Amino acid sequence: MGTCAHRAPPIPLKAACYSAADKILKSAMPKKPAKPAKVPVHRAPPPQQVRIIGGAWKRTPLPVLDAQGLRPTPDRVRETVFNWINHLWDGEWAGADCLDLFAGSGALGFEAASRGARSVAMIDSHSPVVRQLEAVKSKLKADNVQLARGDAVATAQNMALRRQQFQLIFLDPPYQQDFLARTLPLCSKLLTEDGLVYAESGAPLPLEEQDGVPAADWLAPWEAIRQDKAGIVFYYLLKLRKPAA
User: Fold this and answer.
1) Residues 42-77, buried b or exposed e (16+ Cβ, 10 A)?
2) What is the reported pTM?
């Protein structure tokens, strides 16, 4: 006798229709795009060098160390600022004593020296930065530049005690560290009459009341005679307000 073969039970017609329809729908549905690979987000590194824009050392490159918080003032901003000062001073730099409390790359201080400032005192708290500035000073034979390693706040306090004064003070500190609020008030004792402070910040300075938010007390003695913005850089030329008559 032959062996009886077992056959699989037939698939019900309705189930077969659903199965076929599901396959058609799945094949017609658009496939989800593959997720792009995650790319780590890094801030743009500081430039390897900046250049002096005008004066005796025009186009001279200044090396920029890769140090925390070191962020040289962009060339375009620096050109604008020195154009402001040139206009206010009629291009006369010969009698100007300048102070750069956060020297960094030296872009601001050496720019002032290049344009003929009588003296430029440049301060920085980082030894490698000061050594780099000394090398640049030696290369340029910049006799009108004095360099010192020190804390900006303590240096400004000591200068005020010694009654040193300057026609122009540069304040370009690392952003978001409250250095401007600590150093700008000290500048009121360091400025000559009609002296100027250049201040740079990563956020707008609250010089006036805005949207119900009062101006900062530490900015009350100051007025901005020039100001502008480039990207995330907010920059100002400040002078002390005249006392009310």
Assistant:
1) eeeebeeebebbebebeebebebeeeebbbbbbeeb
2) 0.78
What's the whole-number mean pLDDT along residues 185-213?
91
Tokens of 215: 């101006």
Tokens of 182: 């600590």
Range of the domain at 226: 49-204+213-240
Query: Contact at 8 Å (CB) between 88 and 76?
Result: no
Domain membership flag for residue 31: no
Output the pLDDT for position 52: 95
**C-alpha distance across the termini of the chain, in Å:** 129
The mean pLDDT value for 45-57 works out to 83
Question: What residues contact 180, with CB distance under 8 A and at least 6 apart?
Answer: 171, 173, 199, 201, 205
β-pair partners for 63? 49
Q: Which pLDDT does position 101 carry in this prediction?
A: 97
Is pLDDT at 192 greater than 50 in this prediction? yes
Joined tokens for residue 65 = 């160390």
CATH of the domain at 196: 3.40.50.150
The predicted pLDDT at position 70 comes to: 62
When divided into structural domains, the chain yields a total of 1
Tell me what the mean pLDDT of segment 18-28 comes to: 47
Tell me the DSSP string of 112-150: HHHTT-SEEEEEES-HHHHHHHHHHHHHHT-TTEEEEE-
Q: What's the angle, vertex CA 161, arms to CA 173 and CA 217, rounded to 5? A: 50
